[in-house]
């Protein structure tokens, strides 16, 4: 019996560790979304921070975007860029970059607070539908930290689980065997939670269909045509889900409250 338990723990541990490794790689796949920006070659974060401290928010934004174009994206750079746009009263740019920062690091309290602040300045007040308590709780657990942090948690839990298995297998005293057995079970649970959370976060990054309205205002249409029926009006900073990209130059979008319509592709930017 002991041998079978050890084999079961070992197989599950390898399976979850391997899956978690796959989920946590390629984080840099999130695009910068930089368009119509004059890139400053050789820009440094120090230069960008200094420009921000001097309240030259336009230059700071240009430097942060240049950094992302040359060295890759990060939640910190997206957050700083969102702050620049917020100071420039560009609510769409602020919401867009806070959303990107939140996607990479949903556990950061500053990102969540500033995103809520920017959303509060949007014209459209969209009320999301209610959901089951368990669904909300599960999402909150998953978004406690970033993909990388979940990977670290999973690796540490995996190592502790192996220690527990070894204690259970090789210690002769019943007390130590119980400690090893139950601790390895607990760490297996943590490995599963870390694996599932990292996988779902990475999937949401890779398959992101969310977008933010960047036009000052846009009217959603009943079909992908300027002559079609007007359905509802949206303003800059409103978050939508893109449900159809098959029509050239048009996106079918869905609001959190369930409204559906077609908008020109240039009126929104994918997160």
Describe the structure.
With 271 residues, the chain is of the alpha+beta class. The protein contains 9 helices and 7 strands; from the N terminus they run αααααααααβββββββ. β5 and β6 form a beta hairpin. About 7% of the residues have low confidence. The longest helix is centred in the C-terminal third of the chain and has 33 residues. It has 3 domains: 100 residues; 92 residues, Serine Threonine Protein Phosphatase 5, Tetratricopeptide repeat, CATH 1.25.40; 61 residues, Roll (SH3 type barrels), CATH 2.30.30. The protein starts with a helix and ends with a strand. The strands form 2 sheets. The chain has a 5-stranded antiparallel beta sheet. Strands 2-3 form a two-stranded antiparallel sheet.
Write the layout of secondary structure elements.
Layout: H1 2-24, H2 45-53, H3 57-71, H4 75-87, H5 91-104, H6 109-119, H7 133-142, H8 147-170, H9 174-206, E1 210-213, E2 217-221, E3 230-235, E4 239-244, E5 250-254, E6 260-264, E7 268-270
Helix pairs in contact: 1-8, 1-9, 2-3, 3-4, 4-5, 5-6, 8-9
């Amino acid at each position: 019996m002991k041998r079978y338990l050890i084999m079961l723990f070992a197989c599950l541990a390898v399976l979850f560790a391997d899956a978690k490794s796959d989920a946590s790689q390629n984080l840099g796949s999130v695009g910068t979304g930089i368009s119509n920006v004059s890139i400053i070659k050789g820009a440094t974060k120090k230069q960008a921070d200094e420009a921000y401290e001097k309240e030259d928010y336009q230059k700071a934004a240009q430097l942060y975007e240049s950094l992302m174009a040359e060295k890759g994206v990060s939640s910190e750079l997206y957050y700083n860029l969102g702050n620049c746009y917020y100071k420039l009263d560009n609510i769409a740019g602020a919401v867009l970059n806070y959303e990107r920062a939140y996607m990479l690091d949903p556990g950061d309290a500053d990102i969540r607070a500033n995103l809520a602040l920017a959303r509060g300045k949007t014209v459209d007040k969209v009320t999301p539908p209610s959901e089951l308590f368990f669904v909300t709780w599960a999402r909150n657990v998953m978004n406690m930290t970033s993909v990388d942090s979940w990977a670290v948690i999973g690796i540490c839990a995996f190592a502790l689980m192996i220690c527990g298995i070894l204690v259970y297998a090789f210690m002769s005293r019943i007390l130590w065997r119980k400690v090893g057995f139950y601790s390895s079970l607990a760490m297996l649970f943590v490995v599963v939670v870390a694996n599932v959370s990292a996988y779902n976060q990475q999937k949401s990054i890779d398959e992101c269909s969310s977008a933010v309205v960047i036009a000052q205002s846009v009217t959603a249409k009943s079909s992908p045509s300027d002559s079609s029926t007007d359905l509802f009006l949206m303003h800059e900073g409103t978050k939508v889900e893109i449900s159809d990209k098959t029509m050239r130059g048009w996106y079918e979008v869905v609001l959190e409250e369930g409204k559906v319509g077609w908008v020109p592709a240039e009126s929104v930017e994918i997160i």
